[in-house]
Amino acid sequence: QRSEAEVVMISVSSYACQRRTSLINHNAVLTDALSLLPHNAELNEDEGRGLAFRRAAAVLKFLPEPVTTTTPLRGLPCLGEHSLRVIEDILQDGASREVESTKRSERFKALKVLNGIFGVGVKTADRWIRAGIRYLQPLQGSGETLSRAQRAGLRYYDDLNQPVSRAEADAVGEIVEKAAVSVLPGARMTLIGGFRRGKLTGHDVDFLLTHPEEGREEGLMPKVVSRLESEGFLLYQKTTRNSYLESEDGPARSSSSMDRFQKCFSIFKLSRGEEGGAEQTGNGESLTPSGQEAWRAVRVDLVVSPVSQSAFALLGWTGSKLFEREMRRWARREKAMSLSSHALYDTRQRRYLRASSEEEIFALLGLEFIPPSERNA
Ligand code: 8DG
Ligand code: MN
Ligand code: MN
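^ inputs. structure came back:
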């Protein structure tokens, strides 16, 4: 058993990108409670306070053992009075009054239901709650105009709120890779997002597509998407053009750089029990022997990057979201650099810094390399 004095000795950086955060969380009870509060704060348009709770939870996730008293936490970064009070309540009474009353509130329950619809952000959810809509049923009859994304989100609500397994992620990966290579020989696909960090389940599956020859990736997204569509794999898709442009000497030099970095937010129709099989999906009416529908809906994000930016895209899309945010904060505050999923810009030297691997980007930022499995802040 470690004494409190020893726990204090652990030095903890205030930047999550300087901490190795694996998936093993010794303080899940506390972090689960704290992670409810950002939603509440952000709903009340208090972004800063929401971020403060996320940072506090991330510090607890990093600790090598369960917290039993708040005393040794006092020296740690990111743990403000409010977070400490919540932690103290849970350690002393088994629960935090603030967290429990938040969980019980009608507003919060409605927010969870509505925000669980693909295509519905907190702002929309908030507007609907104000209009008295709290559940899915009333929403459908409310006369509210729903976007195409929201209609798909409602239709596949149950499936999309079921976690995606790693086997399902791999099955989607095979389908996407096959489609990409068939429309562009030599195309490369990388699993990104939470699954790249070693998570066993996810709310979606994320993939990065590129081609080793700069420029060959142009127009890849629409081709992949129409291929997948013709094969019957897409229940919904929205492809967005990238509006990223940078100065003359940046990686995206060509005048056509407007279209060179595209994203597709989609819903896949994935056959059940065929993990690993990139087989054509059957008709939707058929059931498996266990009486389940023969397929399920899965959220899939695709991003295409030119190879010159692919290290930045890989880093930027691997997450976690807080880790990314903290890396950008580090770059800006400590290095006077600006980091994005496209590039790293040095504001003092007034130039872009090139990198062809994640390791190089960490090095350019003066950070020790943290592998994806330890970016679970
Ligand atoms: P999960 O799906 O398993 O729940 O977790 P995740 O994989 O970590 O979350 P995610 O919401 O799928 O996001 C994965 C990463 O992708 C995250 O680091 C943030 C990044 N990302 C988006 N949307 C966009 C975007 O529009 N642009 C850029 N540059 N990055 C994005 O999610
Ligand atoms: Mn994801
Ligand atoms: Mn995603």
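DSSP finds 17 helices and ten strands in the chain. The first strand starts at residue 164 and ends at 165.
thumbs up if we can close this ticket
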